[in-house]
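Hi U.,

Before I forget, here's the chain from the pilot set. I'm dumping it here mostly so it's searchable later in email.
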Amino acid sequence: MNLRNTLQLTAATCTFVLMLSACSPSAGVLSLGPGDTDQPACSDFSPIAVESLTTDRTDCDARNAMLVFPDGAELETSDTAATGSLSSSTSPYEYGWVSVGDYGIVAVRNTPTCDEKETWGSPEALERVTDAFGETWPCAAES
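Structure:
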């Protein structure tokens, strides 16, 4: 999974729009409006099981927390980045996350060949990531 952390802030007609772009074979742009990014940072940074990333809208921004995957792998999110990833020679999986503003975090675990892929997140967050980056994200689009 080749995700590059990219965060772009653009101003249009005095309205700020947050745009996230994950550079991968299925790269696209995830656009979030001003009402989609106004949650305060979470004050409790307990580890978050990715299976619990199911709420439609969160009451705080969970970036800067530790995500825990079903196999015990841990991936720390960042409050200064919109995406992140991890791969290791000791694991058959690659791990990643994307912040979708107030809709929460989308987490993904896949094999390098994408024979296996699991995603976790709220229905709205998953839909926004899929709309932006395609059904095959974070894997290469099929030709």
